[in-house]
User: What shape does this take?
Amino acid sequence: MILEARIQHRLGKFTLDVKLESAGPVLGVFGASGSGKSTLLHCIAGLIKPRQADISVRTRRVCRRPGGVWVPPQRRQVAVVTQDPLLFPHLSVRGNLTYAPGARGALEGDLGLRLREVLRLEALLDRPVANLSGGEKQRVALGRALLSRPELLLLDEPTSALDADLARDVLSLLLRVKQELGVPMVCVTHKAGELMAIADDCVVLEEGKIVAQGAPVSVLARPRALGVAKLVGVDNLLRLKLLRHDEPGGVSLVDCGASLELAVPLCAVRAGGTVAVGIYADEVLLCLAAPPGISARNALAAQVTRIDSVGHEVLVGLKAGSTPLCARITPSAAQELKLETGQAVHVIIKTSACHILGD
Assistant: This one.
């Protein structure tokens, strides 16, 4: 386990009341503003002293209250990276990286050399931090945190203050930290794409309580049930293997299983890697037979797995190859198609309706 926590803490009218265990290696914490994400992170870091809590980081107990152990923040062997990099403006990048005791030697050792390469810090070392972009500052903040050799890296919305391009850059760096340095993380975010891209396990918080936990692709596939549909923004969240790129055609091909391929917008993910794709349910069209001569790049054979009437709409569960999908249609369309569970249909999806998350 990277984290075990049972926390009860009241702040004014807000109460955090959670119980969780996660093997990670990256735990995502997802929810709306005010749901308790940052409060949970601060309790783990020791920046908040909860009224009642039992917290263990990688099996080492750091807090048991009331009446038990209390390990102060500086001895918890956790590192925190926030939205604001909190760099010292009067120091160079090297000065910020080596500010903590022992960090100077670490920067020149094997760990420091690896961080310079993974986080692309070498060219920044002698620059003043005032001359850095937002993304470069976050890279320095990550390097400073990792030089402390933390047992757990706590990330509090590390890309929320960045524009889309810089956010993708920082996310790709976090993926390298995960894959190449093997540092366990807890990542707080309100972006479903980030959660899909980096997390292995996730919890969804609502009003200080955990309303769901599991693999992101499973948990976020039920946004309406969890009350976070407005945060997720799409009804189909898929993690699929990228097969190949068709640059002249402007598409990338991903694997839906059973030899079915889905054409998505051309992306930067390498062949063999995993790509997170979001598709609105009302962008999934159903046909009883494969239509000839259409501009949509995707016409996939599928089977109806469920039919749910919700108000004035019908949600149709589907399976294309081994990939689950959901389509939203009108009751009149469902009646006209005479849909039944187990029925064979064709799913039509335009390439532009496939949104790459975390690319």
The longest helix spans residues 164-181. The mean pLDDT is 88.
